[in-house]
Amino acid sequence: MQATELSDVIRHYQAICNAVPLYPIHSEAEYDRAVSILNELLDAGGADENNPLARLVETLGLFIHEYEKVHHPLKEATH
Description:
Radius of gyration: 15 Å
Number of helices: 3
Largest sheet: none
Shape: globular
């Protein structure tokens, strides 16, 4: 990758991260924001794997899932 391409990637990534938290979630506020944005992306068609938003939805979902495993674990079911 050339320096100008890398510069473009960095600029675009920063712009995207201002709109969508594409990084590990560290607080309840970040979590709430991420869930809200995920819902908006799903409403915009991101649940369809052929939609251009699908990979963004998948990536954001992974960050949300990792946060939930630690901070919102599901309780074991009882019989």
